[in-house]
Design goal:
Helix content is about 30%, strand content about 20%. It has helices spanning about 20-25, 45-60, 115-125, 140-155, 170-175, 185-200; strands spanning about 1-10, 30, 35-40, 65-70, 75-80, 80-85, 110, 160-170. Helix 1 (about 20-25) crosses helix 6 (about 185-200) and helix 3 crosses helix 6 (about 185-200). Keywords: Cytoplasm, Hydrolase, Protease, Thiol protease. It is an enzyme of class 3 (hydrolase).
Length: about 220
C-alpha cells in the first residue's frame, strides 16, 4: 500500500520549508504493508498540480497527505475544505500572482477533504501534539494544490484513494528571525505525520465532535 506525502519547496525568501523537511524524513518509511513516498512540490501555480499528477500516476497511492507551511499557526492543522480560487497575496516562486482566478475552470466551488480530520486531531492531541481542524487553506499555492488534489480524486480517482491537506507551523530556526511567532519542532511534525497516516488508514468514518470556529 503506497502512501504519498508531498511538501513544498521554500518560498517568500525562506531558505527552508517545514512541510518538505517533515515529509522527506518519512520517505521510505514502512509500517506493515504500508510504504511512504515523499515528493517535493514547486511553490508555483500550475506546476504544483503537474508535479502532483506525476506522483499520483507513478505511485497509484491509497492515501495522499499534502503538507504545507502556515506561518503564524501554533498547531498541526488538517484542512477541511479547498476552494476553487487562486488569489495570491504575493507572487509564487516563478513570479506569478493570479488574482481571483479559478484553480480549475468549470469545477465545483469547493471540495471537502476525504481524510478523517476530526479523528486525526483527537489522536494527535492524545499523543501530546497540538492540533486543530482548520477551515481555510488560504488562496495561495497550498489551497491551489489541495483543490487540484481533490479535483483529481473526484474526476480521475485511484481506486480507494483518500486525500487531503495539512498545514504545519514554522520551524524554530525560522522564528529565530521572526520574534513572537509560534513554531513546532521538526521531530514533533514527523511524529504527527505518523499519527495522521495511521489514523487515516484505520478510521473509515470520521467522528462527530466539534471542530468549528467562531471566525
Amino acid at each position: 500500500m503506497n502512501v504519498l506525502l508531498t511538501g513544498f519547496e521554500p518560498f517568500d525568501r525562506e531558505t527552508v520549508n517545514p512541510s518538505w523537511e517533515a515529509v522527506r524524513a518519512l520517505d521510505g518509511w514502512r509500517q506493515g504493508a504500508v510504504v511512504v513516498h515523499a515528493r517535493r512540490i514547486p511553490c508555483v501555480f500550475g506546476a504544483a498540480l503537474r508535479a502532483l499528477d506525476t506522483a499520483i500516476d507513478e505511485l497509484q497511492p491509497q492515501l495522499v497527505l499534502a503538507v504545507g507551511q502556515a506561518g503564524g499557526r501554533s498547531e498541526f492543522t488538517p484542512e477541511r475544505v479547498a476552494i476553487n480560487v487562486d488569489d495570491g497575496r504575493i507572487g509564487d516562486n516563478a513570479g506569478h500572482q493570479p488574482i481571483d482566478q479559478p484553480v480549475v475552470a468549470g469545477a465545483p466551488a469547493a471540495y471537502f477533504s476525504t481524510l478523517p480530520i476530526k479523528a486525526m486531531v483527537r489522536d494527535l492531541r492524545a499523543a501530546g501534539i497540538p492540533a486543530a481542524v482548520s477551515n481555510s487553506a488560504g488562496t495561495f499555492v497550498c489551497n491551489h494544490l489541495f483543490f487540484g488534489l481533490m479535483h483529481r480524486a473526484a474526476t480521475r480517482p485511484v481506486p480507494g484513494m483518500r486525500a487531503g491537506f495539512i498545514h504545519v507551523p514554522y520551524l524554530p530556526e525560522q522564528v529565530a528571525r521572526l520574534p513572537g511567532q509560534p513554531s513546532m519542532a521538526l521531530a514533533t511534525m514527523v511524529a504527527a505525520l505518523r499519527v495522521a497516516i495511521a489514523t487515516s488508514l484505520a478510521v473509515g468514518e470520521d467522528i462527530r465532535e466539534t471542530g468549528g470556529q467562531l471566525h
